[in-house]
Design brief:
heterodimer; A: alpha/beta; 15 helices; 36% helix; B: 92 residues; alpha+beta; three-stranded antiparallel β-sheet; two-stranded antiparallel sheet; 34% helix; 25% strand
Chain lengths: 376, 92
Amino acid sequence: MNATANPVADAIVTPRPGPPLWLLFELTYKCPLHCVFCYNPIDFTRTGTELTTEDWIRVLRQARALGSVQLGLSGGEPLVRDDLELIVAEAHALGFYINLITSGVGLTEARLQALKRAGLDHIQLSFQDSTREMNDFLSSTRTFELKSKVAKLIKKYDYPMVLNVVLHRLNIDHVEEILRMAEEMGADYVELANTQYYGWAARNRDHLLPSREQLQRAEAATQRFRDKVGQRIRVFFVVPDYFERRPKPCMNGLGSIFLTITPDGTALPCHAARMLPGIDFPNVRTSSVESVWYDSSGFNHFRGDSWMKEPCRSCPEKAKDFGGCRCQAYMLTGDAANADPVCDLSPHHHLVTAAVARADAPRPAVEKPLIFRDHR
Amino acid sequence: MGTITPSLRPAIGRGLRLQWEPAQNAHVLLYPEGMIKLNGSAGEIMKRCDGSRTIAEITADLERTFATTDLANDVCAFVSMAVDKQWLVIQS
């Protein structure tokens, strides 16, 4: 850019964004489970080799120096990496607040002890359902008993117990039982997160999208539980955005606080952004975190509002929802700069209402089989 | 939660961490899935809530440090709000 000599051009340059406060490391795409609602890319086996321990530690130091403070360790299953304890220890020494996001598979007492010593702050354990049959079916494994044991271990080591259950058509009717299970396990927080339709979940959408009636029953059951337990257990219910009339403020705007590093070092402004065509996302093997965050075209592309089209561009709500989710706009309309079709002002909103109408039909005609996340 | 009185000893809630963040020029409270950026007075009160000092002692320390008086009601009101939000717990 050659704008330094022009005071007017300087004055209209977008202000420097704040730091990437929230850092997510997807340490590996390897995972012992095969969940049908996984948001990982369908072609995850075709991504490059995983970063080394030294790479992850360099990124930690650079990000912390910029002001990153929340660190999520995810995947795939992060416990597959045998250097997880080293990464946690370094992050702790740097002052990160560290969250392990895990299926629990591989979390032995010895590893939990080592992670505690290394300074891990908390653990978010995912369950697929309250019943062994459904949990094992949806993840295509036999993990229910194992997860229950891990939940006890997490309590034993005095971690706040954060239970995450991804909801969808096949388990949403079990919300009452799921919450009862959470209470028995001594959960402090429960996230009932309705499936977001990316990656494997997008492919399985017609199997997974609940009906409006199912959703209302689940919300009512959640509220009854909240009234019963009060402050003792915090329950978050994330509504599937297909049922909304305005889009979610995805990532609080791309490039505003979230920074995801994928297993091969590609840096993304959200977990799913790799799908966006024609955008060159930088890699931490060749760029510093500072240049990734502040200077790369991939991160600057969707900052501000000059990329927006109508109806977003002139919309008074654009500062509130940033036009919604770029990935959803791309997946449903073919153009990532369009309004998220969840918005009823979008000319593509009928695509969302049609999917909901199919879900509301008594027996949706589904020709495709349910596809489990797998290597292919 | 009951009434907050000056003889109680508040401490940072379980699973939460309070720390100074130079990049934000503020104390922040970190918890699973979130972060609260505290304003100056909230940070000064919370960093003194170590579970060993009473609210009266914390108030006296603040009045000394900032050469002021009559903070008792403000400190009690803040602690009461923070206990409601589970940022602080009262040590028994």
